[in-house]
Each structure stands twice: as structure tokens, then as C-alpha cells.
Design goal:
With 316 residues, the chain is α/β, with parallel strands linked by helices. The protein has 2 domains: 2-96 and 297-315, Rossmann fold (3-Layer(aba) Sandwich); 97-288, Rossmann fold. The protein has helices at residues 11-19, 34-40, 56-61, 80-85, 98-113, 116-126, 131-137, 156-168, 203-209, 227-232, 250-259, 278-281, 297-315; strands at residues 2-5, 23-25, 43-48, 67-70, 89-92, 148-152, 171-175, 181-187, 193-199, 212-215, 237-241, 262-267, 286-288. The strands form 3 sheets. A 6-stranded parallel beta sheet has the order 7-6-10-11-12-13, with helices on both faces. A 5-stranded parallel beta sheet has the order 2-1-3-4-5, sandwiched between helices. Strands 8-9 form a two-stranded antiparallel ribbon. Helix 1 (11-19) packs parallel to helix 13 (297-315) and helix 5 crosses helix 8. The chain is globular. The relative contact order is 0.14. The mean pLDDT is 97. Residues 6-315 form the D-isomer specific 2-hydroxyacid dehydrogenase catalytic domain. Belongs to the D-isomer specific 2-hydroxyacid dehydrogenase family. It holds the Pfam family 2-Hacid_dh.
Length: 316
């Protein structure tokens, strides 16, 4: 049986599948050519990440397809219910990349409070001639320790983010319409451990009391953070979105940054991905990454192996 990893898969995943007799193809096939390619090559398993869309055209017209796999958490690029209704297995790896995304959130947070994203733009240009001016410009940073992190969506990635925040010494408050309480276990290098219980509160309470915000929610029709929500935040707050493009109103975000309502933002995902708005890309108060939350070697190895294990379990 053949597996098409259209958005790539780790070598560890390939090895696990080939070991039990699967043929793994890593050709990146254009979206409009996928149906023909799957049929011509009698593909049994289609693996995707966030780039490839698996809609009804593929589901209806590819009779050889038995499994659709998503390397990661969110499956908004797959018509999951329809696929399952048609008898296909739909799998994902919800826990494999949580830690990687959480670490990227804190990369943006640390960069934001110490202006690293802007300093790294200007030091190469003016560091030799305006060192003292730049030192003055970037010398007003603040510490994360002792501040309050507001987590909107306290699922697996939100919980992984909370772990880091607790370790940093931050207070954590969270909103999630589907979760009332979570246990956050922290395991340390020497075998010691601690457990923290977080009870979720209202969205309004999080917006009012947090110094920094991070979103961990699926794609949805309405903005989770828009002009109304930003107005409820503290002046100078920071916001990170490493969830999905479209959950933050980027027009309202840029306006709030320009007016000083928000201090900084970190974005790993964008409304117009893969062509983000120029106003977003050029704003000096926004720390930018190109949707790399799960793109660590460790996370990709875990994703590949977990997908392989599920495929083998279903088809072997």
C-alpha cells in the first residue's frame, strides 16, 4: 500500500511505515492535481499538514483512499465529518506538537517584552553608528515574572503553555467554553514534580486582568479577538496568536498597536496566509514567524511516528 505525505513527514515516520511494507511518497502534488495523482498511484493513505486541503472532491473521487492523516492538531483543512461518513479513517496527532507551539509562544513573549524582534532589524543597520540611541530605545523592557498570562483555549497546547508560564513565575488565568478545570503537572529534571489546578473564568475576566494573552483555539467563523475584546484589555498588553489565522482581527490589532493600546503582538499565523497583509508584516511592534509552531525536529519526529503507529494499527 502507498502513503502520500503531501506536506512532508519525518524520516522516523517514513522508516516506521517502510519497515512494515508501506511505500511512502513525499512528492508535493498541487491541490488541483491531487485527485488524479491519488487515483493514478492508487494511494491508500493521504497525509497532510496545514497546506493541503482535503475536501469533498478528493473524498468522493478517490476510491483507493482509506485514511486521511493530519500531522498536528487542527483539522479545519479536512472535511472530517464527511470523510468519516464515507467510511474513511481520519487521524491526527493532537499531543505531538504541543510543547513546540508553547515554546514558540514564549519566544514571541520574551522577544516582545525586550523588543528583540525590532532590535534585530535595526542593530545590523545602525548598531555601529547609533548604538547609544538604540540602547535608549530598547532599554525600557519589562519582565514576564510576576505578570499575568491570559490563555484563551486551555486544551493541550494551552496547558503546555501554562506549564512554561508557571515555571517562569507568571500567574495564569484561562478561558475555555468547554473546560471548567485542568490539572497542570510539572515534572522536573531531578524527578520532583508539582501539580497546579487551574479553574477557568469568563472571557471578560481574562481580558480585564491579563497582562499578556495567548490564543489556542480552532479556526472559527467569528473573531475571538476583535476591536471589542481589545478595548477590554489593559493598556500596553501583549498578544500572541500561534493558533489559526482569522481568530484575531488583524485590522483592529494593527490599529491598537499604532494607537498604543497594545504594547506588542506576536503572530505565527495570519488571516491571509500564505500572503500576510503588508501592514502586518511592516509593523515594528509585531514579532513575526511563518507558521512554524510545530516545526521543530522533535515535534516532527513525534508526529511522524504517531501517524505511522495509527496507520499500521488500522491497515495492518
Amino acid at each position: 500500500m502507498k502513503v502520500l505525505a503531501n506536506d512532508g513527514v519525518s524520516q522516523s515516520g517514513i522508516n516506521a511505515l517502510e519497515k512494515v511494507g508501506f511505500e511512502v511518497l513525499t512528492t508535493t502534488v498541487a491541490q488541483d492535481q491531487l485527485v488524479d495523482y491519488i487515483n493514478d498511484n492508487e494511494i491508500s493513505v493521504l497525509l497532510v499538514r496545514s497546506a493541503t486541503k482535503v475536501r469533498t472532491d478528493i473524498i468522493d473521487n478517490c476510491p483507493s483512499l482509506k485514511i486521511i492523516g493530519r500531522g498536528g492538531v487542527g483539522m479545519d483543512n479536512i472535511d472530517v465529518a464527511y470523510a468519516r461518513e464515507k467510511g474513511l479513517h481520519v487521524i491526527n496527532t493532537p499531543a505531538a506538537s504541543s510543547g513546540s507551539v508553547a515554546e514558540l509562544v514564549f519566544a514571541h513573549l520574551y522577544g516582545g517584552v525586550r523588543f528583540l524582534h525590532d532590535s534585530n532589524r535595526n542593530m545590523p543597520l545602525e548598531g555601529d553608528s547609533k548604538f547609544k540611541n538604540l540602547k535608549k530605545s530598547y532599554g525600557g523592557g519589562i519582565e514576564l515574572r510576576g505578570k499575568t498570562l491570559g490563555i484563551i483555549g486551555i486544551g493541550r497546547i494551552g496547558q503546555a503553555t501554562a506549564k512554561i508560564a508557571i515555571g517562569v513565575g507568571m500567574k495564569v488565568i484561562a478561558f475555555d467554553p468547554f473546560i471548567e478545570e485542568v490539572d497542570i503537572p510539572l515534572e522536573f529534571f531531578d524527578g520532583q514534580s508539582a501539580n497546579f489546578k487551574i479553574k477557568t473564568v469568563s472571557k471578560e475576566e481574562v481580558l480585564k486582568n491579563a497582562d499578556f494573552f495567548t490564543l489556542h483555539v480552532p479556526a472559527q467563523k467569528e473573531y475571538v479577538i476583535g476591536k471589542t475584546e481589545i478595548a477590554q484589555m489593559k493598556d500596553g498588553a501583549g498578544l500572541v496568536n500561534a493558533a489559526r489565522g482569522g481568530v484575531v482581527d488583524e485590522v483592529a490589532l494593527v490599529e491598537a498597536l499604532e494607537k498604543g493600546k497594545l504594547g506588542f503582538a506576536g503572530l505565527d499565523v495570519f488571516e491571509n496566509e500564505p500572503s500576510p497583509a503588508i501592514k502586518v508584516l511592516m509593523n515594528s511592534k509585531i514579532s513575526l514567524t511563518p507558521h512554524i509552531g510545530a516545526a521543530t525536529g522533535e515535534a516532527q519526529d513525534r508526529i511522524g511516528v504517531e501517524l505511522a503507529d495509527q496507520i499500521i494499527s488500522i491497515l495492518k
